[in-house]
Amino acid sequence: MSDAPPAEPPDGFVPFERRGPFSRHNGPFFHRPNAAETEHGFYVLRRHCNGFGIAHGGLLASFLDGLLGHAVSDDAGRAAVTIQLSLSYLAMARTGEWVRGEARVTRRTADVAFAEAKACVGERDVVRAAAVFKLLDPRHLRS
After folding, report:
1. The pTM is what?
2. Which residue has the higher pLDDT, 17 or 57?
3. Burial of 68 (0-12, 13-18, 19+ CB in 10 A)
4. Which pick of 10, 24, 30, 75 has the fewest CB atoms within 10 Å?
5. Of 103, 109, 116, whose CA–CA distance to 135 is shortest?
6. Half-sphere exposure of 109 (CA within 13 A, CB side)
């Protein structure tokens, strides 16, 4: 069995190149530009699965952490890092299924942002998350 995506992503989704090396290695991930909320997605590949043949919880956590981070960065106009991430696993995602995630910022101060996200397969919620992010001062980032 090939470990390539089983199909092209759904209409409106394109490869997401802004993710870092960790996510690019574990992808491919896609996003929907100009969506009302931040939307990302991926096909569950065999290499994404645990010994039970379902999407590994660590992959789902990483996917939502990246999705939430991009929602916060886009909203704040600057980079952010995760301070706290809380997840609730609700259902399984299986090989070949399209997982679509959406995130939104719920509150932002000068230094901290709060966001929530969910990932679904069709109408089935797979995982929900809430997170807190530290907004970074661009003067302190290395190039």
Report:
1. 0.91
2. 57
3. buried
4. 10
5. 109
6. 5
